[in-house]
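Before going further, it is useful to explain how the protein records used in this thesis are read. An example of such a record is reproduced below.

***
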Amino acid sequence: MPIPVLRARVAVVGLALAATMSLASVADAKTIPAELRVVDSDGTDLAEQTQYTAKEGIKIKTDPGTKCFIGGAGGSGDKVTVPGPTAFSLLADAGETTRDVRPLSVTDEFPFGLGLCGVGDAVATTDGFWYLKADHTAAQVGGDQLKVKPGLDVLWYLIEDASQPPPDELVMTTPNVKAGVDAFEVQVFSYTDAGKKKPAKGAEVTGAKEPTDAKGVTLVEVGDSDLIELTATREGAIPSNDETVCTVKAAKCPPGYAETIAGTGGDDEIETGKSAETVLAGGGDDRIDGSGGAAPDLVKCGGGDDKVTGYDKSGDTRFAGCEKVR
């Protein structure tokens, strides 16, 4: 593998989609949100959430035992400061609330920046690497150089064989399903390494009897379940995002079923969206604003002195460990 390619792929680290904050609030906040997805080589999702990350970065300890790159000698074992908000700080902050992405195995042996070797139990060998896409296009810089900005989407995927071309990425969209329907359509797209988008023909979707057609569309039957968990797969491609669809009236759907928002170990200003979201605030003195919500959430405040506003106390949102709720 030529050295320039290795350097580009050692990058392999995250980006960001700022979800629900206004531009003014993002500018004032200490942390900002990004859409984070981390996938093991077997297709297992290690993380899929709106993740906040610190603007000033975060300290992590490098791993002297890791040997994941060609000629790799392992990290120094020292603590290093990861600049923020970047792909690496995004991943490190995710470990505050998401068990499957910790510990991180990181090396500082290269002069051009930090290298990501392992995320939890998913560890790259000398033959593989962590592949990064930003807005569905392969990133060209290292994770400690890749700035997290509102509006970006991040995918990390563990590739076992670096000699093979990166696989296409599948992305699935689902409709707002009305209660009482017998079936509904979903659509799946594929994105190349260069970010070229096209309908994903032949993808298998959970609960669908037929693969997707030439337009990437298939029909999912509702059955007896109130909640349907959907994923699209196709041989040789990165599995799609997970989607959970509630098939009964909104009032009967469980709080927080649709999406996850995760905070950092510091102070976050978290704003929820219209979906039924699970908020994992993490440590720090957090401020959680639920005024933009249209569905019941599940709010887990964590450590620190947390204040929650914008929720109707008579509503169905559930709270755990929150000092102030009004």
